[in-house]
Specification:
It holds the Pfam family UPF0004. 33% of the residues lie in helices and 23% in strands. Helix 8 packs parallel to helix 10 and helix 11 runs parallel beside helix 12. The chain is built from twelve helices and 18 strands. The structure holds 5'-deoxyadenosine and iron/sulfur cluster. The site of 5'-deoxyadenosine has 12 residues, from strand 12.
Length: 411
């Protein structure tokens, strides 16, 4: 979502005749910020200091989640502070002298259609904010209350993106399953997007487990463009911790949702988020997280050490876990998941996958592509002429740590 916000700002700047420049020579420097974990928030303050030293003349704009919650603090080191709900206002800055704090307490831009930069993948916001208030999470404070965008503007925005080359759309929201506009729910929206000519693939993030339904699992199968990949954050395998986190499901219910997905999409992939070291997480609770990973067999997880966040209730909980213990639990979780991921990924060897060419890969003469199940495939392009946005079939030939190698199937 932050990447999309940066893109929105970039598109406004482009429309106003600005071009990208080296940081040392730029007239305007913009830093977007993430507040989801303590580490990312701290980084913003040190980054701003570093960049200001490189370019003392530029107007400096701080935006994003940290700007939303700490506007005063950021205004001391920035000319403009732009909160998450005020991006729309940025388009009016050009008549002003780049000074001020723009931090609205509610989303005001739901009907405005921002531009996209040319890319085979277009990020599309469908619902802003979050009303869940998980006890560890700052997002309800940085992204404010849930507001669904009108489906007409979503569809128009997708058509605009397709016109400049998008082949895939990623529908974004903290909780996409809560989408509801004028009686159209998330499934209804998927049906609408599935009909848009030129869209080849549809993805969505993130689903909250409590709202993921069997109907949605079936919709993923029924709609040809919707990719068979589900990101469903579990956070912990312990019911006691899930309750303290206020996640509103227990492990059994979570496992049931996974079953729904697999029933209709047996070849699909599932990823998740895990937090280790939540306050009061005992060794037994942690063991249950490990058991949950064994039982569910996620394709991949994003795992984090718990960190206290401003406004989030868990920061006040007793029995905080030591940094050392969190570090150890994180490494245990990651080692276990590496083994599980390797076992799952091995099954891809020799298979033929539809892949979308996304960009040049890091290695010489390779391009990076993605399967419908969200796996990265590097393809040798030295004898081919593959371009961004091509949709082709590839045979998976090699398994790397976080990607595959593949060869294009010519027949
Ligand atoms: N500490 C650690 N991880 C967190 N996340 C959210 N808040 C915190 C926190 N306070 C993780 C969750 C979420 C992901 C986006 O970030 O796993 O799903
Ligand atoms: Fe944060 Fe929970 Fe909302 Fe996700 S659902 S953004 S973890 S409060």
């Amino acid at each position: 979502m932050n990447e999309r916000d940066s893109e929105k700002i970039e598109s406004i700047l482009q429309e106003n005749g600005y071009e990208k420049a080296d940081i040392k020579e730029a007239d305007i420097v913009i830093v977007n910020s993430c507040a989801v974990r303590e580490k990312s928030e701290k980084k913003i303050f040190s980054e701003i200091g570093r960049i200001r030293n490189l370019n003392k003349k530029a107007k400096f704009i701080s935006m994003g989640c940290v700007a939303q919650i700490f506007p005063q603090k950021l205004s001391k080191i920035s000319d403009v502070v732009l909160g998450t709900a005020s991006i729309y206002e940025f388009k009016n800055f050009f008549n002003k002298d780049f000074k001020g704090i723009f931090v609205s307490k509610e989303m005001t831009e739901s009907d405005y259609i921002f531009g996209h930069l040319k890319s085979p993948t277009a990020y599309i916001d469908i619902i802003y904010g979050c009303d869940n208030f998980c006890t560890y999470c700052v997002v309800p404070y940085t992204r404010l209350r849930e507001v669904s965008r009108s489906y007409n503007s979503i569809i128009q925005e997708i058509k605009n993106a397709v016109e400049i080359g998008a082949k895939e759309v990623i529908l974004l929201g903290q909780n996409v399953n809560s989408y509801n506009f004028d009686g159209v729910n998330f499934i209804g929206l998927l049906e609408m997007v599935n009909k848009i000519a030129g869209v080849k693939r549809i993805r969505f993030v993130t689903s909250h487990p409590k709202d993921f339904s069997e109907d949605l699992a079936k919709t993923i199968l029924d709609l040809d463009k919707v990719c068979e990949h589900l990101h469903l954050p579990l956070q912990s395998g312990s019911d006691r911790i899930l309750k303290l986190m206020r996640r509103k499901y227990n492990f059994k219910e979570f496992a049931q949702k996974i079953e729904y997905f697999r029933k209709y999409n047996p070849k699909g992939s599932i990823t998740s988020d895990i937090i280790v070291g939540f306050p009061r997480e005992t060794k037994e609770d942690f063991k249950q997280t490990l058991m949950a990973l064994e039982e569910i067999q996620f394709d991949e997880i994003y795992s984090f050490k718990y960190s206290n966040r401003p406004f989030a209730k868990a920061a006040l909980m007793p029995d905080q876990i030591s940094e050392e213990e969190k570090k150890e639990r994180l490494s245990i979780v990651q080692d276990l998941q590496s083994k599980i991921s390797e076992q799952i990924n091995k099954r891809y060897l020799g298979s033929i996958q539809e892949v979308l060419i996304e960009s040049k890969a890091k290695a010489f003469n390779q391009v990076q592509a993605r399967t419908r199940t969200n796996k990265i495939v590097n393809i040798d392009n030295s004898k081919l002429n593959l371009n961004e946005g091509n949709l082709v079939f590839a045979k998976i030939t090699k398994l790397n740590k976080h990607s595959f190698n593949g060869e294009i199937c010519t027949n």
